[in-house]
Specification:
alpha/beta, seven-stranded parallel sheet, 9 helices, Sc_DH/Rdtase_CS, oxidoreductase activity, acting on the CH-OH group of donors, NAD or NADP as acceptor, SDR_fam
């Protein structure tokens, strides 16, 4: 795979697997996130594959920051072919207790941030005239309610699901595909508290037709498929990697 890829949230568990898979396939990978140190550290690890890498600090909730990060990739490598956005905030508070600060923070990163980084990458892709791939990490919670206080998170991911369809409809004429991957429960640091709750895990696996939680690499493989030429005619789609949860609840 010869592509210039920006992975936002690239040093998280899923993002790290995505970056490693892309680098192993021959892509140039820019790792971005709120910690420049962690992004640069992973970029150095990936450089061992022999392809170009870089680490960038990026807060997708800041529109100017999104434009700056995309601009850095374009300036360094002459363009951007693929954007993968895994930046996300999760706050679990009962709906009746949810405060304005938590609500605003979640939507600013998960939904507004998804648009700002898509807009920045989309502009660069349109200007270059070579098409491109945009893939967002959504969640099964964007389609299904839960009892664990996912009010803002679920609403933001539902917004992401429609955002990819809207951008796909608008940017298809430019050869840009826009899709999302919606995982079920994946045991990562992002959901560390829930991962330590044995009763919760038993409930999750019992409600999942395949009877287990997702592996990080399984989600990464779905992302990398949508980012590849193999998915050239796939756009506006939300691919559920959830063991059948969304089909059975």
């Amino acid at each position: 795979m010869t592509a210039r890829v920006l992975v936002v949230g690239g040093y998280g568990a899923i993002g790290r697997a995505v970056c490693a898979t892309l680098a192993a396939d021959g892509a140039d990978v820019a790792v971005a996130g709120r910690s420049a140190e962690r992004a640069e550290e992973l970029a150095k690890e990936l450089a061992g594959h022999g392809h170009r890498t870089m680490g960038l600090r990026l807060d997708v909730a800041d529109r100017e920051d999104a434009e700056r990060a995309v601009g850095a990739v374009v300036d360094a490598w002459g363009g951007i072919d693929v954007l993968i956005n895994g930046a996300s905030v999760l706050v679990t508070v009962p709906a009746e207790e949810f405060g304005p600060q938590e609500w605003a923070q979640t939507l600013a990163t998960n939904l507004s941030g998804a648009f700002w980084i898509s807009q920045a990458a989309g502009r660069a892709m349109i200007a270059a005239g070579n098409g491109g791939r945009i893939v967002h990490l959504s969640s099964v919670r964007g389609a299904l309610g839960a009892r664990r206080g996912f009010t803002a998170y679920g609403a933001s991911k539902a917004g992401v699901n429609l955002l990819v369809r809207q951008l796909a409809a608008e940017w298809g004429r430019h050869g840009i595909t826009v899709n999302a991957v919606s995982p079920g429960f994946v045991r990562t640091d992002f959901v560390a508290e829930a991962s330590r709750d044995d009763q919760f895990l038993r409930t999750v696996t019992a409600r999942t037709p395949l009877g287990r939680t997702a592996e990080v690499q399984e989600v990464a493989d779905a992302v990398c498929y949508l980012a590849s030429e193999r998915a050239a005619f796939v756009t506006g789609q939300v691919l559920y990697v959830d063991g059948g949860v969304s089909s059975s609840q």
